[in-house]
Write a structure and sequence with these properties.
Layout: H1 3-19, H2 27-31, E1 44-45, E2 54-57, H3 67-83, H4 85-89, H5 98-103, H6 113-131, E3 143-146, H7 157-163, H8 167-186, E4 193-196, H9 200-206, E5 210-211, E6 225-226, E7 233-240, E8 243-250, H10 262-272
Parallel strand pairs: 2-3, 2-4, 4-8
Antiparallel strand pairs: 1-3, 5-7, 6-7, 7-8
């Protein structure tokens, strides 16, 4: 069994065990806390064998509030329970058309807040693809991988980083997150990875990546570079051998970069790859 097949089957079994309430040995729960355990874990979205870009996230965030939002998410979880995790998420349902969603039993899922969030992010992703001089003619979806599959109201990067001092946990993250992410990068249209969040720099360095941000750009005190004179968004470039990661963050949130940054992003990306 190859690495990606093993990964996909592993999470099919883990998510199925969550539905049956039989998974009592989750390594995340042994090292971290504060999760919404009544929400289905979402370790990844998309197809790691063929994708537009590979994205590494902290975790899936919190479940949207409101009766309609909860109902839409419960519908999504029930379809996953019925048909299997990889069968549903390989198509990246958060970015699918209403006709496709109707066919797999997810009517009106495009109204879910998570879908709206991903639609906005995917517009930015298509911009990144164009920078590389590529066209997404096949309509490839991103592959989004989570450092942690569990939803939570807040993400604690410091706790996660300190937990990596445990060799068993670090080996697990390397096997089931970092190495899968690197495989997806190799299989992506963009050819580089993307991660959004300031703490990713420290995390990537623990797995052998080095900061290779262009030295010609002025840096902030924490090492990021600003591509806009008045807006608080920062960028860094990390590399490990053939793998290149673009890291960006905005103070106080996980927002998608606006078009105000696109011209300078183009310069940065052309210089990094």
């Amino acid at each position: 069994m190859d690495k990606l097949t093993d990964y996909i089957e592993y999470w099919n079994q883990k998510v199925s065990a969550w539905f049956q309430n039989t998974d009592k040995t989750d390594i995340y729960l042994m090292n971290l806390s504060g999760f919404q355990m009544d929400a289905m874990p979402e370790p990844y979205l998309g197809n790691p064998r063929e994708c537009s870009i590979a994205i590494l996230n902290y975790n899936p965030g919190q479940i949207s509030n409101g009766s309609e939002q909860v109902k839409l998410y419960e519908l999504y979880a029930n379809i996953v329970k019925e048909k299997g995790y990889s069968f549903i998420v390989s198509s990246f349902p958060y970015l699918q058309t209403s006709n496709f969603l109707n066919e797999i039993g997810l009517s009106e899922f495009e109204k879910y807040d998570g879908s709206k969030w991903w639609q906005k992010r995917n517009t930015w992703i298509e911009h990144l693809i164009c920078i590389k001089g590529k066209k997404n003619e096949k309509g490839l979806m991103p592959f989004a991988l989570e450092l942690c599959p569990w939803h939570s109201l807040n993400w604690n990067s410091k706790r996660f980083i300190s937990s990596l001092a445990d060799c068993q946990f670090k080996d697990y993250i390397n096997k089931y997150v970092i190495s899968i992410y690197e495989n997806a990068i190799s299989n992506s249209l963009c050819g580089f990875g993307l991660c959004i969040g300031k703490s990713f720099g420290q995390i990537l360095e623990l797995f052998g990546y080095s900061d290779e941000t262009c030295k010609n750009n002025p840096r902030s005190t924490d090492g990021g570079i600003k591509l806009h004179p008045t807006k608080e968004r920062y960028y860094r470039v990390y590399r490990k051998g053939e793998y290149i990661m673009l890291n960006t963050w905005h103070q106080g949130g996980n927002r998608t970069p606006s078009k105000d940054f696109w011209e300078k992003e183009t310069e940065l990306i052309k210089n990094m790859v």
